[in-house]
Amino acid sequence: NVPSVLYALENPVRRKSHKLYDNEVEILIKVMDVNDNAPIFKENDGPIIAVVPDRANYGYPVLKVEAYDEDSGNNGEIRYSLLNEPARLFDVDALTGQIRLLSSLVTFQDRVFGFDVKATDRVGADDGKSTIANVFVYVLNAQQEVCLILAG
Prior knowledge:
- Keywords: Calcium, Glycoprotein, Membrane, Repeat, Transmembrane, Transmembrane helix.
- This is Cadherin-89D.
- The chain has 152 residues and is mainly beta.
- It has a domain at 40-140: Cadherins (Immunoglobulin-like, Sandwich).
- It has strands at 4-14, 20-30, 40-41, 48-53, 61-64, 67-68, 79-83, 90-92, 98-101, 111-120, 130-140.
């Protein structure tokens, strides 16, 4: 995705005979991307919320976070990681952003878990730019009905 520009330069050349020759040279210039953009979560208007039944077990797909980056090449390659998740109940796939359960939630009825997901560009390198999204996971008793009202 790096833009390329082809320029034709004309350069008059004089030889020992003082005769003027026109030489035409084509130069290909590639503009390299600098990492000037941080990733942006598609859900960037507030926290990301998921509702999970208490019967959910290991491997259950809780939700998938998605971020994009306007940089190109490795500067735009995003990796995901979890922050502030002390319960160790959740894991995120670094490549896809899919958050899954690491344990059963049967003993966590009617609980809310909050943690952060970090999206880092430059393939997750330490010098990459990053963005953090807040995630809240509501664990519901499967016998109850739920009504969530989200205010903007």
